[in-house]
Amino acid sequence: APRVAFVTLATGAYGEGALVLSAGLRRRLPAEVDVLVFSSFEADNDGPEAPDVPPLRLAPGVQLRALAQLPVVPEPPSCIGPPLMPQFRFCWAKLGLWALDDEYDVIVYMDADMLIVGDISRLLSQIPAPGILRAVPACECWCSEECCYTSAASSNESDFPKTPSTFYFNAGLLMFRPSREEFNAMKSSMLALSTSNLEGSADSASIEMPFAEQDFLNRHFRGRVLPLPPAFNALKHALKNPKHESALPISSCIAIHFVMGKPWAPPSKLEEDFEHLHAQWRAERQALSPVAFRRLDWAQRKLHPALDLWLLPDFVTPECEESLLSCFYGSSAVSLQGRWRQLRRRNLLCLGGVPHNDGAICEELPSPVGVLGQVLSEMGALAGEPDQCLVNSYARGQGIDAHFDGPRFKSEVAIVTLEGPALLHFRLVEKTEHPELPPRVEVLLLPRSLLVFKDAAYELYVHRIDHAEADTTAAGERILRAPRRTSLTLRRLADVQLKASQVVTEVQREARASQWQWWDSQISEID
After folding, report:
1. pLDDT per position as a tens digit, 326-343
2. Which of 51, 294, 297, 383 has the most CB atoms around it within 10 Å of its CB?
3. Which CATH superfamily is domain 300-523 in?
């Protein structure tokens, strides 16, 4: 089977669009098809517009890649003129997708301002031959009476054109076979433009590129394009165009393309006719809030160059925090109520598996915790999905004494903090043996943050939270504790006898219950 990826770009404010698009793709595509988001969000969040750029969040099952990983095709010479819209300058990056031929046989690129509303997997039966591009005609009613946008309006795959033709297409959806040879040809074409003396010549007018890479691709692939029906790239304004609306009812659309005004932007009088479409996008975005986790480059969040210790603020959304807390404390948590154990200095709930001498026999983590674990694995925070989650509930004034997590777990931990802050102290035990390491590190854990520590930070340091009503940082800042703080410690057990999916017999379930009884007898030892 061909290796297929559906890809989008997340730059600037388009991160909100990338979240909704990629989640819609992941939900509707087969598991073997990758969904990728290429992002420059570390750069965006450090730039002058950073306060206006929301954190990039993605749903489970979506892969994040750094935009800088894509090779670059030089932009056209200045004499050709600037793009029509400033954000079009980011679109040149999509040309680098042609260089992914070592990973994928087929790429489907989609702009981040698109919403999946139908069966996008139908594209998988329309893979083009090498050197051929598949795209939807652009709506050119604004500049031509010969607009062919809905000329291929049939949604029946058997009616799709079989031979390439010449037409101007919209580059919001592109389906192609990546090829380093094709990428190099694009690069050569652009270099030829850049080295030509076009300034003031008639040629410079003939190759204006107000739509940036869209104009370039139309020029580069002329005569090598197979049209796709507009249902795969239903341009928002065309759905209200009398010339097209009868041939393209919204009920037949597969992907709506929000050209011009964006649904995540403040409402505008100019967009009133499209409010019902914008509302549909916003409903999708709201539904994703509990499973939209912050993603970015881990290297940017390392707390000390010598330690594998990372802090990611604002990792979970308020909606995700609410979902997790409801799982532990709410009316839906009836099945867990008997699992809480009151220790001397906190309350504890263990989920998943316990570190038993015979190897853990695990249970499924509750849904919101399991989704969190899946994301921690996908983003590389943990080397695999966690099979244990300790939920610690602290009242104000309660903490935890200095301790190692020990050899019964893999040497990596992810801690998600909910409800209230706390100051976590790390202390190096054998200072003389490791002079290259800092003797002490403190980390302020804010609500909804993620802390990950591994290897030396796990094996050589003890960590603690003071028993206090407030914390004082090394800089002298006093942080008052909340009435309750909940923390999730997610780990992978070193010795697993049976994963949750492997527990299928009554004998296995009884053995698991026996392990939990043993755990209850030992639990006071961990306080």
Report:
1. 999 988 777 787 889 998
2. 294
3. Alpha-ketoglutarate-dependent dioxygenase AlkB-like (2.60.120.590)
